[in-house]
Amino acid sequence: MKSIDQALLAGKKVLVRVDYNVPQNEQLQVTSVTRIKRTADTVNKITKDGGIAILMSHLGRPKGEVNDTFSLKHIISAVCETLGKPVTFLGDVLDAKVEEKINQLKPGDVALLENLRFHKEEEKGDFEFAKAIAKLGDLYVNDAFGTAHREHASTATIARLFPGKAYAGYLLYSEVKSLKKVLEEKKSPFTAIIGGAKVSTKINILKNLMEKVDNLIVGGGMSYTFAAALGFSYGDSLFEEEMVPVAKEIIEQAKIKGINLYLPIDRICGDKFAEDANVIVTEDPNVPDGWMGMDAGFKTRELFKKIILDSKTILWNGPVGVFEMDKFSGGTKAVAEAVAESTKNGAYSLIGGGDSIAALGKFGLSKEVSYISTGGGAMLEYLEGIELPGIKALEEN
Ligand code: AMP
Hints:
This protein is α/β, with parallel strands linked by helices and about 400 residues long.
């Protein structure tokens, strides 16, 4: 995969696939510019080198039809403000006038096309549609890691229309580099901390990690399905009966492969799912009826901390307790602090998933880890071992 650093951008019309699928309020104002901000380095590189950046994205799910609610014109002021430069709105990619508008742009200019998903051909990965987009530019840059798991016209098909001239933008490149660093170029001991609510949403990640990790820490709501697989009672804790065989298989595989599997050794239970719940701390692996496991206990925190501090590579996805409630945030805080400390000691740490990122933010530790992946679904598929079409298209270029 070639980075944008290898591209000759001066005087070139550069088609840049970005992920500006930003959250909006009812007035369609952008409520978080994070996704725009993360493309700034790529856009700045193009404009500084004297290229013309033609940005293109999807927004929401207009299902192949023109729908004003999903128009990118509503986000243009947020794009201008965040990138700190004027951005010309070009309108629809198939509009007869779009080429003329692009021809009026000068080196260093930035422009934005209308929502690509106004055409059903986009999500179908249609070749003719990709060709129509491709004819508007001289080079292609993909900086939309968040949509790299989609085989769409603007994320995968189009790259094949720019042989030798399709590049990864800085955001996409750094996301892939950090995931590779953890999954393929890892230094041992490699510890994965997988938490969160459900086994069912993490099952393929867990299975893929069984081929890679030295230590697997399972925490949070999903640990009670593992406890049940070991024959313990789970009280009113989160539990997925249909996932018990999966948990049993992971436990078995860990034994066969010599992976250290760590589950909570004590827990903080509440008598209801609320901040004002009554609380007990228990070392008994059986959660009493009427109580639900809400957070890792104090001994568990010490255990997890020791393993994390002994690690050279760390992957963390999913909180180990209901961290949104202060009363049950201590376990997740302890994990976040341990990951930060281990990073300071030289470990490489990758944190992904909305809740773990939010937890790091809550404890003021976002800057203390090696890399925070904002790739969402694309990151999860990468962790599952799935080849992402957008990455594959760039790698084969
Ligand atoms: P996920 O999206 O699967 O990573 O799950 C994140 C959610 O899991 C967060 O909202 C946490 O509050 C929740 N969670 C973590 N531990 C528990 C637990 N023991 N019981 C219930 N929910 C939990």
